[in-house]
Amino acid sequence: MVFFQNPSFEDTPRRSKTPYGWYLCGANHHSPPDIHPENIFKVTKSPADGITYLGMVSRADGSVESIEQVLSEPLQPGTYRMDFFAARSDEYYSYSVPVDQWVHFDHPLHLAVYGSDVPCSTARLLGRSQLVKDTAWQYYTLTLKVSAPVGRLQIRVEPPGTADSIWHGSMLIDGLSPIVPVDSQSGTLLAVPDSGATLPAKGDVAEIKALLNSLPGDERALNTVLLQHPGGQLMQVNGVLLAVARWAARRESQRLVLALHPRVSDRLVFAIHRAMRAAEVPEGGYRLKRKRGRGKHWIGESFLKIKLK
């Protein structure tokens, strides 16, 4: 079964204007969505997953914020599942162009998902969440109904159909899952989650080196497996990276250092962070460096090398 990775928001660098892997689709005369927590607009909530999350708003002139990505391959007709964490911020105080003053963006919103082959089109609604009212993070499962192939996926916030013309709303979004095919009647996953990579019998340096050397010559060719956490959350992760992360998690007194070839893309950086979270390696338990990793202390001969400190 095919499943599709959504680049998520949890590792987007702070101060970034656009979540990694996404494009802006909002009105040009308005500001873009925001990456939090950066102590702006009085939004201080801790992330539900990772280190950052996305904040999107609706405004009094009917404009809303939205982002879009180009899928690695088109979604074919069928029924799919996409999960995410969402919340309404305790405060979201920002300047509103339509009313020319600072206001509280405190009304609840829906999350809507659109599919198309045309940039930023809302011609085909695939799914719409319930109103996100709670100020605590909640985990939502959204069913997407695809009637014709779509190569682009757009997510946007929308006020309820009963909203009047002045609707300053906001939503915080985190931990967007892969898109997974499900049975249209029961909602059962058709892509069976893997148990994930397991360590070799010994889990020694020689075996870890062999794992690293098994990585493809081009990091764009990384294969992934679908995992499901006990709480139900779905995650797409590379098996080799997950095995290395689980190996590191066993060495609580040591810190893993990862050397990435300077030419590799941010896609690999995000894949590593995702594997570390799946293995429950704490944020301070590893460090990424853009260097070739030369020397006898480095393990592996691929575009990724590691050592323990």
Shape: globular
Helix content range: 10-25%
Q: Which class of the largest domain in CATH terms?
A: Mainly Beta
Q: Work out the number of β strands.
A: 18
Number of helices: 3
Gap between N and C termini: 40 Å
Kindly provide the radius of gyration, computed on alpha-carbon positions and rounded to a whole number of angstroms.
21 Å
From the 3D structure, determine the CATH topology of the largest domain.
Jelly Rolls
Compute the average pLDDT.
Answer: 85
Q: How would you spell out the order of helices and strands?
A: EEEEEEEEEEEEEHEEHEHEE
Main beta sheet: 6 strands, antiparallel
- State the CATH architecture of the largest domain: Sandwich
Q: Uncertain regions: pLDDT < 50 for 5+ in a row?
A: none
Number of domains: 2
| Beta fraction | 25-35%
Keywords:
single chain; 309 residues; mainly beta; Jelly Rolls; 2 domains; six-stranded antiparallel β-sheet; five-stranded antiparallel β-sheet; 3 helices; 11% helix; globular
Give a nutshell description of this structure:
The protein has 3 helices and 18 strands.
Task: Walk me through the structure.
The protein has helices at 205-213, 239-249, 266-278, and strands at residues 23-24, 34-36, 53-58, 66-75, 78-87, 93-96, 101-104, 110-116, 124-128, 138-146, 150-158, 169-174, 180-181, 225-228, 234-237, 256-260, 286-290, 304-308. It has 309 residues and is mainly beta. It has two domains: 23-181, Sandwich (Jelly Rolls), CATH 2.60.120; 205-308, no CATH class. Strands 2, 3, 5, 10, 12 and 13 form a six-stranded antiparallel sheet that branches. It is globular.
